[in-house]
C-alpha cells in the first residue's frame, strides 16, 4: 500500500527529485544509477552476491508510462543478485538495499537496455525509473537440492569457472559445529579433492566459483563426508559442514572439442584408472566424475580409424557400465538405467541381452523402492522397518546386477587397457 | 415400394415394442437383452431415415427412464447419420435434436464414455467434423459429472489432441484460408470447450491459495503443452496479409491466456532454473515429461519473444544476455529439426534475442555453456545442408550477428571452434575472412587487442595457414578456404612490417612456407598437370565419345541429372584450371611480397 500511494500522481516529480538529489551508486561514479531511499529497511543486513532476492517493483519510462510491475502479477520477482541476470542498474541498486527497504532508482540506458532497447516495451536509449522493495533474500542453493548453500563474501573476476578436471589453487577453512577442523592452502584437480580430504561438495561448488572468489559454503551431509564421516578430523556420520573457501587460481581442463582423438584416448585410460580407484574406496560421486569424463570425450567423437574406434568403444563400454554401477550404489536408478540403455544401444549392440537384464533388475529395484516409499510415506513409526525392508530387498537384486556388471566391467577393463597400450 | 414401406415401419414398430415392454419395468429390471434390442431397433430407425419418429419416442415423457439408461447406445449410429446427411437436411435436424435430448437425459457417466468412444474411433477426414459435433455435448456432460471430473476432462482433451495430431497443419496462406480438414476451426473450438474448466480453476484459486484444484489445473496444463507442440510448433504464426483473424495466432493467444489464468506461464518460461515442483509421484514419468516438454517450451518462448504473446506479464528487468542464455536451449532444440516451420522459428527466436544485445557486449564466458558452442555449429549445418534457401541465408546472417555480439576473446574462441568443427571449405573460408576483419580492427584501433595479435593470433593462424592433407589436398574442393587463407596472408604481410611484427606472422614464416605455401605449389602443379592431361584426353576422344557410353549417372535429391556431354565436361575442366590459375596468381603475389619485405630488412641490417 505504502509503495502505491507515493508513485501514483508524482512519478515524474520523483524522477526529477532523483536526478537532483539522488545518490550516485555506480562504482564508476558516472551518475548512471541514482538512488533515493523512500523507506529505510528494518534490518541492517544487505544481500550478498549470488543470493536469491525477492522484490516487488514497478517500472516506468521517462514519460511516466508504466511498463512493468510485479504487483500486477501478484507475485514477488525473484532473481540471483550480481549475476548479470538483470539489467546492470538492478545488480548495482539492489545490492545496496537493506531488507525491508523501499527505494527509487533512476537508470541511464547504459545501465538498462541501451541503444538496442527491448522490444516491444522498452524503446531505444530509454532512461528507466524504478520503485523497488526488497522483501527478502537468502543464500544461493547451488544445486537446487538444499545440499550446498553459498554466500559470496567477495566476488571473483569474470565469469569463468574451473571445470571438472581443472587444476585449482584454493585456501580453505573447514568448520563443524563451530569448531575449525581444517585450514590449508592446497592445489588439486577438481573432482579429486578427496585425495586431500576435501569433501565432494567443495569440488562441486568450485565449478561454480570464479577466480578470486571468497565464499562461505554450507554443506549437507551428502556433499560433506556422508555416512562414513571423517575420523581423521573427528567428524561424525552425516555431519553438516561449513567451509570458507577462496579460489586463488585455476587452470581449466581442456574442453572436449579442444582435444584430438589421440589425446582423448590417452586421457581416457588415465581417468578410468582413477575412477576405479575411487570406486574401490566407495567414493562413488568421485568415481562418477572420472567415468563421466570418458563419456563426454568419446561419446560424440566421429571420424575415428578402425583401431581408434575399437579402443574408444571399449572405453565407453567400461565407462557406461561402471557409471551404472556407481549410480546403483548412489541409488540413482534412473541414471543407472540410462547408462545401460546408452551402452546397449550405442556402443555394443551385441551386448543387448546381458544389458537389458541389468536394466530390468534396476527397474525392479526402483519400482520396489518407490512402492515402499509410498506405502510408508509420513509414517514415522514405520521408518525403521521400511529401511530394513528396502535394504533387504534391494541387496538381493542389486547384488545380482552388480555381479553381472562387475564381471563385464573387469572384462572390458582388461580389453580396454590392452587397446590403449596398443594405441600408445 | 410397399414392401419397403412395410420393412421400415417394421423398424419403428420393433422400437415401439421394446419401449412398451420396458415402460412397465423398474429401472433395475432392465436386462442386457433389452439394451440390445433397443440399440438394434433404434439404429435401424436411424438408418432407414425415421429420425423424426425416433425423436418423438425420445421426447416422450413416459420413456425418460428408458432413455436415461439406454440412450447412450444410440450415439454411434447417430453420429454416423449426422455426418452423412447434408447440412440443413430435415433429417439431420432431427438427429441433432435427438443428440440434444440424449445429452439432457442420459446418465452422464455412460454418455461420457459413449461420446469419447466416438472420438476415439474416428480418423482421417472425419476427425474434425466429429470432434466439432461432439465438443458441445461432451462439455455439457463433463460439467454434469460428479466424480473424477478432472480426470475425465484430461482424458477428453488428451483424446481429442491425439486424434488431431496426425492431421497435416495448414501452412501457406491459401491452405489456412481453405482449412480443408477443418483443423483451424476445430482447434479454436477445443479452446472454447476448455474454457469453463479454466474458469473453474481460476475461481478455485481465488477462493484459497491452499486448495488449488491441482488435478484439473494439471490436466489443463498438459493440454496447453500438447497444443504448443501440435499444432503450434508446426504452424505458420507470422501475421498474414489478408487474413484478419489468423486462426493459429488466435489459438496461440488463447493457449497463452489459459496458461496465464492458471498461473503457469511464468513457471514454465523459467522452468529450467527454478527447479520444477514435482507433479509426478514417479520420477520416471517426470523425466519423460521433461523430454517431451522441450518442444513445447521452445514454441512458448517463440510465441513470447518473437510474436510477443503474453509479453505483458513478462518481467522487464532481465538483462539481454540472460534472456539469450535462457533461450539458447530452445534455439538449439529448434535448430536441430529439419522442418521449415521449426527451423524458421528457431532462427527468428535467435534473432530476436540477439537484436536486444549491443555489439561486442557478450562475454566469452558464455561459450562455456554448451548451447553457446552447439548453436553456431547447428547454424553451420543449416547453412550447408538445408535445402531451403531463405533458411540457409538467414542462418548465415545469424552466425554473423552472433559473432558480432561477442567480445574479442569470444570471437576468437568461436573462430577456433568453427574452424575445427565445420567440414566445409565455404564456411571455413568465411571464418577466415572474419578473422582477417578482426585482425584489421586490432591493427587499426587505438587500443590494442591481445586476441588478434601476437601469440594468440599465431595459434589461430596455425589452424588457417596449412593444407589439411598437405600437397594431396583436393584444391578444387578447398578452393574457398585456400583463397581466403591466401588473402589473409597477403593482408598480413602488407599490413604488418617485419620490424613491427605485431601479428607475429614473420615469426612463423618458415612454418607457413613449410605447411602451406610449399605444399600448395606442389599441389597446384600436380592438379594442373592432371586436369590438363584430362582435357587433352577428352579432346582426343571427342569423336569416339559421341557414341555416348555413360560410365556413371548422378542423382541429386532423387532426380536424375542429365548425362554430361563432352562439351560440358570440358567446360568444367577448364573452369577448374581457371580456379588453379587464380590460386596460383595470388600465391605468386604473396611470395613476391614476402621476398621484397625480407630483402628490405636484410638490406637494412647490412
Automatic annotation (TrEMBL), chain A:
Reaction it catalyzes: [protein]-peptidylproline (omega=180) = [protein]-peptidylproline (omega=0)
Origin superkingdom: Eukaryota
Assigned EC number: 5.2.1.8
Domain PPIase FKBP-type: 50-138, 165-251
One Pfam entry name: FKBP_C
SMART domains named among the record's database cross-references: TPR
Keyword Isomerase belongs to the record: yes
GO MF: peptidyl-prolyl cis-trans isomerase activity
Cleavable signal peptide: none
Assigned keywords, A-Z: Chaperone, Isomerase, Repeat, Rotamase, TPR repeat
Entry protein name: peptidylprolyl isomerase
Protein source organism: Aythya fuligula
TrEMBL record, chain B:
This protein's GO CC annotations: cytoplasm
Protein origin, superkingdom: Eukaryota
InterPro entries the record matches: Glomulin/ALF4, YAP-bd/ALF4/Glomulin
GO molecular function, one term: ubiquitin-protein transferase inhibitor activity
Name by which UniProt lists this protein: Glomulin isoform X1
Source organism of the structure: Aythya fuligula (Tufted duck)
Lineage of source species: Eukaryota, Metazoa, Chordata, Craniata, Vertebrata
Amino acid at each position: 500500500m505504502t509503495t502505491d500511494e507515493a508513485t501514483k500522481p508524482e512519478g515524474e516529480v520523483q524522477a526529477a527529485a532523483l536526478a537532483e538529489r539522488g545518490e550516485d551508486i555506480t562504482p564508476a561514479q558516472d551518475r548512471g544509477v541514482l538512488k533515493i531511499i523512500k523507506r529505510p529497511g528494518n534490518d541492517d543486513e544487505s544481500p550478498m552476491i549470488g543470493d536469491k532476492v525477492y522484490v516487488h517493483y514497478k517500472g516506468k519510462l521517462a514519460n511516466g508510462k508504466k511498463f512493468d510491475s510485479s504487483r500486477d502479477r501478484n507475485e514477488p520477482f525473484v532473481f540471483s543478485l550480481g549475476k548479470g541476470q538483470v539489467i546492470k542498474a538492478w545488480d548495482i541498486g539492489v545490492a545496496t538495499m537493506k531488507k525491508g527497504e523501499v527505494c527509487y532508482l533512476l537508470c541511464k540506458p547504459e545501465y538498462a537496455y541501451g541503444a538496442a532497447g527491448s522490444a516491444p516495451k522498452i524503446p531505444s536509449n530509454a532512461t528507466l525509473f524504478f520503485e523497488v522493495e526488497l522483501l527478502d533474500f537468502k543464500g544461493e542453493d547451488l544445486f537446487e537440492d538444499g545440499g550446498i548453500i553459498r554466500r559470496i563474501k567477495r566476488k571473483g573476476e569474470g565469469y569463468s569457472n574451473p571445470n571438472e578436471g581443472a587444476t585449482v589453487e584454493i585456501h580453505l577453512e573447514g568448520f563443524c559445529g563451530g569448531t575449525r577442523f581444517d585450514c590449508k592452502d592446497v592445489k588439486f584437480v577438481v573432482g579429486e579433492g578427496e585425495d586431500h580430504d576435501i569433501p565432494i561438495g567443495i569440488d562441486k561448488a568450485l565449478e561454480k566459483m570464479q577466480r578470486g572468489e571468497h565464499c562461505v559454503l554450507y554443506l549437507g551431509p551428502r556433499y560433506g563426508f556422508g555416512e562414513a564421516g571423517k575420523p581423521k578430523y573427528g567428524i561424525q556420520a552425516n555431519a553438516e559442514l561449513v567451509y570458507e573457501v577462496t579460489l586463488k587460481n585455476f587452470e581449466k581442463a581442456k574442453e572436449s572439442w579442444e582435444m584430438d582423438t589421440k589425446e582423448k584416448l590417452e586421457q581416457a585410460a588415465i581417468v578410468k584408472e582413477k575412477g576405479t580407484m575411487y570406486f574401490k574406496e566407495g567414493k562413488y560421486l568421485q568415481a562418477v566424475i572420472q567415468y563421466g569424463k570418458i563419456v563426454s570425450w568419446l561419446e560424440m567423437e566421429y571420424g575415428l580409424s578402425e583401431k581408434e574406434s575399437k579402443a574408444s568403444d571399449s572405453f565407453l563400454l567400461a565407462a557406461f557400465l561402471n557409471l551404472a554401477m556407481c549410480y546403483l550404489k548412489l541409488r540413482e536408478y534412473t541414471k543407472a538405467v540410462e547408462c545401460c540403455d546408452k551402452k546397449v544401444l550405442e556402443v555394443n549392440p551385441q551386448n543387448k541381452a546381458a544389458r537389458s537384464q541389468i536394466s530390468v533388475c534396476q527397474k525392479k529395484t526402483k519400482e520396489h523402492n518407490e512402492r515402499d516409499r509410498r506405502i510408508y510415506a509420513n509414517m514415522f513409526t514405520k521408518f525403521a522397518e521400511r529401511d530394513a525392508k528396502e535394504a533387504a530387498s534391494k541387496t538381493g537384486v542389486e547384488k545380482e546386477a552388480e555381479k553381472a556388471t562387475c564381471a563385464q566391467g573387469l572384462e572390458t577393463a582388461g580389453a580396454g587397457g590392452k587397446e590403449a597400450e596398443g594405441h600408445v | 415400394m410397399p414392401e419397403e414401406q412395410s420393412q421400415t415401419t417394421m423398424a419403428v414398430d420393433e422400437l415401439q415394442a421394446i419401449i412398451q415392454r420396458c415402460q412397465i419395468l423398474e429401472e433395475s429390471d432392465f436386462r442386457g437383452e433389452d439394451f440390445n434390442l433397443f440399440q438394434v431397433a433404434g439404429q435401424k430407425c436411424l438408418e432407414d431415415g425415421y429420425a423424426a419418429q425416433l425423436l418423438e419416442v425420445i421426447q416422450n415423457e413416459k420413456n425418460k427412464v428408458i432413455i436415461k439408461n439406454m440412450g447412450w447406445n444410440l450415439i454411434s449410429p447417430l453420429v454416423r447419420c449426422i455426418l452423412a446427411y447434408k447440412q440443413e437436411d430435415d433429417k439431420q435436424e432431427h438427429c441433432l435434436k435427438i443428440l440434444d435430448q440424449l445429452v439432457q437425459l442420459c446418465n452422464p457417466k455412460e454418455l461420457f464414455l459413449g461420446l469419447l468412444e466416438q472420438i476415439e474411433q474416428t480418423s482421417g477426414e472425419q476427425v474434425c467434423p466429429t470432434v466439432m459435433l461432439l465438443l458441445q455435448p461432451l462439455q455439457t456432460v463433463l460439467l454434469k459429472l460428479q466424480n473424477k471430473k478432472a480426470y475425465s476432462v484430461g482424458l477428453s482433451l488428451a483424446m481429442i489432441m491425439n486424434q488431431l495430431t496426425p492431421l497435416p497443419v495448414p501452412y501457406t496462406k491459401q491452405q489456412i484460408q481453405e482449412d480443408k480438414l477443418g483443423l483451424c476451426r476445430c482447434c479454436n473450438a477445443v479452446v472454447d470447450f476448455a474454457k469453463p474448466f479454466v474458469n473453474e480453476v481460476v475461481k478455485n484459486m481465488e477462493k484459497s491459495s491452499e486448495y488449488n484444484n491441482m488435478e484439473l489445473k494439471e490436466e489443463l496444463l498438459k493440454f496447453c503443452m500438447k497444443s504448443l507442440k501440435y499444432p503450434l510448433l508446426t504452424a505458420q504464426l507470422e501475421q498474414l496479409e489478408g487474413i484478419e483473424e489468423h486462426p493459429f495466432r488466435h489459438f496461440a493467444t488463447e493457449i497463452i491466456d489459459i496458461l496465464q489464468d492458471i498461473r503457469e506461464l511464468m513457471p514454465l518460461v523459467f522452468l529450467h532454473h527454478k527447479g520444477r515442483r514435482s507433479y509426478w509421484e514417479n520420477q520416471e514419468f517426470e523425466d519423460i515429461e521433461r523430454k517431451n516438454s522441450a518442444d513445447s517450451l521452445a514454441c512458448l518462448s517463440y510465441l513470447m519473444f518473437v510474436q510477443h504473446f503474453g509479453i505483458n506479464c513478462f518481467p522487464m528487468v532481465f538483462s539481454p544476455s540472460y534472456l539469450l542464455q535462457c533461450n539458447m536451449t530452445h534455439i538449439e532444440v529448434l535448430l536441430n529439426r529439419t522442418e521449415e516451420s521449426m527451423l524458421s522459428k528457431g532462427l527468428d527466436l535467435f534473432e530476436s534475442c540477439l537484436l536486444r544485445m549491443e555489439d561486442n557486449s557478450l562475454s566469452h564466458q558464455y561459450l562455456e555453456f554448451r548451447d553457446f558452442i552447439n548453436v553456431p555449429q547447428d547454424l553451420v549445418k543449416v547453412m550447408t545442408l538445408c535445402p531451403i534457401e531463405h533458411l540457409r541465408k538467414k542462418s548465415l546472417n545469424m552466425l554473423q550477428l552472433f559473432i558480432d555480439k561477442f567480445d574479442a576473446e569470444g570471437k576468437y574462441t568461436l573462430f577456433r571452434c568453427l574452424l575445427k568443427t565445420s567440414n566445409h571449405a565455404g564456411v571455413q573460408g568465411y571464418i577466415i575472412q572474419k578473422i582477417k576483419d578482426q585482425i584489421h580492427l586490432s591493427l587499426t584501433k587505438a587500443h590494442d587487442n591481445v586476441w588478434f595479435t601476437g601469440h594468440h593470433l599465431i595459434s589461430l593462424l596455425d589452424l588457417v595457414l596449412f593444407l589439411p592433407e598437405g600437397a594431396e589436398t583436393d584444391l578444387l574442393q578447398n578452393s574457398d578456404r585456400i583463397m581466403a587463407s591466401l588473402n589473409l596472408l597477403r593482408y598480413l604481410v602488407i599490413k604488418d612490417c617485419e620490424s613491427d611484427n605485431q601479428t607475429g606472422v614473420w615469426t612463423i614464416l618458415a612454418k607457413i612456407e613449410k605447411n602451406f605455401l610449399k605444399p600448395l605449389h606442389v599441389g597446384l602443379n600436380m592438379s594442373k598437370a592432371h586436369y590438363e592431361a584430362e582435357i587433352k584426353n577428352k579432346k582426343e576422344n571427342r569423336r569416339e565419345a559421341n557414341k555416348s557410353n555413360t560410365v556413371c549417372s548422378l542423382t541429386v535429391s532423387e532426380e536424375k541429372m542429365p548425362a554430361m556431354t563432352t562439351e560440358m565436361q570440358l567446360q568444367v575442366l577448364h573452369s577448374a584450371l581457371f580456379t588453379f590459375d587464380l590460386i596460383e596468381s595470388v600465391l605468386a603475389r604473396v611470395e613476391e611480397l614476402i621476398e621484397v619485405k625480407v630483402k628490405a630488412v636484410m638490406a637494412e641490417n647490412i
